[in-house]
């Protein structure tokens, strides 16, 4: 069985769609509800390294706390931003998916297909009705 992990927020439509795409490939991933169980500092650093991103690039800019803490200011170092994401995991953009083929921040949800080259088992539409996978398993929208 393929080992896949999703850092998931069940209240987020993009995260739910991403999880559904993983399951549509026939895989039941390890689900990390990161708001309840924030990733450790070393896990965050590993995810960033695997995605070749810096801390700022995985911060949820639409979050009210982002503005309240003035996190757009360049004065914040990666170490400080990682520390803030540990204390306030709502600042972590989601979902992040880890597969044997790579690690990716999956926004939009179909970005998961870049690191999930397994065939889709059935047609798939996002929650908003957008068809992504047709009855032949072909990607029709990305």
TrEMBL record:
SUPFAM superfamilies: Thioredoxin-like
Presence of the UniProt keyword Membrane in the record: no
Position of the signal peptide: none
Keyword Coiled coil included in the entry's annotation: yes
Keywords: Arsenical resistance, Coiled coil, Oxidoreductase
PROSITE patterns: ARSC
GO process annotations (BP): response to arsenic-containing substance
Leading EC class: oxidoreductase
GO molecular function: arsenate reductase (glutaredoxin) activity
InterPro entries associated with the record: Arsenate_reductase, Arsenate_reductase-like, Thioredoxin-like_sf
Catalytic activity: [glutaredoxin]-dithiol + arsenate + glutathione + H(+) = glutathionyl-S-S-[glutaredoxin] + arsenite + H2O
Coiled-coil region: 48-75
EC number, as in UniProt: 1.20.4.1
Pfam families in the cross-refs: ArsC
NCBIfam families (UniProt xref): arsC
UniProt record similarity statement: Belongs to the ArsC family.
Name of the featured protein: Arsenate reductase
């Amino acid at each position: 069985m393929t080992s896949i992990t999703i850092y998931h927020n069940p209240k987020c439509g993009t995260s739910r769609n991403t999880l559904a795409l993983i399951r549509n490939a026939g895989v039941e991933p390890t689900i990390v509800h990161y708001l309840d169980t924030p990733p450790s500092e070393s896990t965050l650093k590993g995810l960033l390294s695997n995605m070749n991103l810096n801390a700022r690039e995985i911060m949820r800019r639409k979050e009210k706390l982002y503005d309240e803490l003035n996190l757009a200011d360049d004065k914040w170092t990666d170490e400080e931003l990682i520390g803030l994401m540990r204390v306030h995991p709502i600042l972590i953009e989601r979902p992040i998916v880890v597969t044997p083929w790579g690690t990716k921040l999956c926004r939009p949800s179909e970005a998961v297909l870049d690191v999930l080259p397994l065939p889709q088992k059935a047609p798939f539409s996002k929650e908003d009705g957008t068809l992504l996978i047709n009855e032949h398993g072909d990607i029709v929208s990305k």
